[in-house]
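A quick aside before the break. I want you to see a complete sequence-to-structure record at least once, exactly as it would be stored in a machine-readable document. Don't worry about memorizing anything.
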Amino acid sequence: MQWWALLVAAAALRAAVAAGHALLDDITAVPGIAVGHARTAGGHSGVTAVLCPAQCLASYAQAGGAPCTAQTDLLADLHFGNPSVSGVVLTGGSIIGLTGASYGALRYVSSAPTEQFPQRLHVDGFTLPQLPAAGLLDLAYQQSVEGGTRADLGSLMGQYVTAAEQACAAAVIKDAAGKYGPVQQGSQGAGTGSVAGQYCFDVKASTKGGIGSAAVALEDNVVIGVIIAVNVFGAVLSDKSEYMTGCRHLNGSFIDPERFLGLHTLNPEHTTNTAIGVVATNVPLDKPG
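That is the input. The structure line, written in tokens, reads:
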């Protein structure tokens, strides 16, 4: 699920809290949702596995000119024959990370014990878990903090394979009460290499993004949770319209995006931003057909 749908979900959470509903810790407040993070070997990107070992009905929303996703066509309303998934993978690394992380998660979940993932899809003797994935573009950040060094494609993709397996393994760990969570937030998993305030066209002037999660409890024991990796073009403002992240002047103050963009020409090379995430609920849902 991508940026506009996530904004709707975030707005709904804010409205629910404003109406007096309880704000819970994170998306693992939704029963059956497990989350794990891992970083790549370089330490400046990573993978987040949002798993539902008992299978979840899933759909998606996507916007933007260059989505970086895998297996999301399976979630369209048209495909109602086998709509459930074992989880969703969120990753940095653009298409490199998407390819590696998708394979790593598939390898982990397909080989996991049956009691851990009891309802995976089995076809012709193969275990084929459905694990849609979405990637964000954090390669510029990686280059900026790693001094311009560039790993070869195979090596870099392999880092995401390993990180995805580690993220899945971390996700399914339960506490002493048999519950998943809590979710680490900030510069973790898919949010490790994300930045905010890309409107000044210089990743070094932007501030760190990250990954965040929240949940809210409504009437009739309804729980809605969300987790979002924020790698955005614009600034992030607080409820009081104060800058939390954005592009900075050399003195550390934030640059007003409207004023800056009014003086500079935007070209497609500058639009490498996106926000990816998952919205989950314990409300029974179905699909057409």
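Two observations worth writing down. The chain has five helices and 15 strands. The first strand starts at residue 22 and ends at 24. We'll return to this after the break.
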